[in-house]
Specification:
It is a single chain. This protein has about 270 residues and is α+β, with helices and mostly antiparallel strands. The chain has one domain: Alpha-D-Glucose-1,6-Bisphosphate, Chain A, domain 4, CATH 3.30.530.20. The chain is built from 6 helices and 12 strands. The strands form 2 sheets. Strands 1, 2, 5, 6, 7, 8, 9, 10, 11 and 12 form a 10-stranded antiparallel sheet that branches. A two-stranded antiparallel ribbon has the order 3-4. Helix 5 packs antiparallel against helix 6.
Length: about 270
Amino acid sequence: MKAVTAFFLLAAFCVSTGYAQQLESLTGTARASLLRSGENLTETQTNFPAHSSGAALKLLPGHDGLSRYVSSVISDLQPSIAVETLSLYKKPYSGVWTQGERAGLFNQILALSTLTGLEYYSTTRSAMRTLYEFSTVIDDPRTKKMTADPVFEQPPRQLSLYARQKDLSFGDNIYRYDYTVNDDAFFFLQENITSLSYGIVPAVGKNKLRTVLAVIDCGDSLLIYAVSMAKAVSVPGISGKVGDSFRTRAEAVLGWFTGRADIVYRSEKINK
C-alpha cells in the first residue's frame, strides 16, 4: 500500500508543479480585463523617483517573490528610468503547468541565440529595425567563447549565464543573465557588464542597466511582465531616447517570447 501511495504521489508531482495564480489577484480586475481583451500595457517613467521600491512601479504584478526581487534590484540600482510592459499569453488549454511545460518554457528563455535577427519598431526612424545583429551565450566575459544555449530537463532554482549581444543602437556588449525559478513562476535579470553608448554618446554605464522579465502561471494563461531600469547619464535628450528605445525593445522581446511559447505549446499539445 505504501508503494502504491508513493507511486501516485510521484505521478502527481510529475504532472503538476503546484498551483496557478489568479490573474485578477496579480493585476487587479480592471487590468485583467484589458489583458484578456488582448491589450498589452506599457508604462514609461523617465524621472523615476530616487530611493524608491517596487511600489513606485505602475504595472508590477502582486506576486510576492517577484515584488521582493524587483524591489531589491531598485534598491541596489536606484534607477532614473523605468520602462514596464505587461502582457497575457493565452494557453491552448487550461490547467496548472506541468513539469514538461514549465521546463520547455524555461529552456526557451535560455535560448538567447534565437534573439539574433529580432526586429523592433524604431520610434526615431519610424520603421522596423534589427534589434540584435547577433546574440550568443558565452563561457566568460574575458574569453567570450561562444557556447550552445543550455537545455535542462528540470529547471534549476538558480542559474547564471553570460551573453554577447550586438545591437544597432547600443553596439557590441556583454550581459549577465541571472535566472530564478519558483513553482508558479520564473524570471531573469539581465545586467550590462559593459557600458552602453547611444551612437557616439555615452548612455548607460557599466552595471547600470537591469532588465527583469517574469513569466507567471495563471492556469489558462501566462502573465508576462518586463521592466527595464537604468541609471542613465545626465545628457540632455538622452533619457527620453533611452526610454523610448527600452519600450520598443521590450515589446519586441515580448513578441519573441510569445513565439518561443508557441513552440512549447505545439509540442505539449501533441504529447497530451
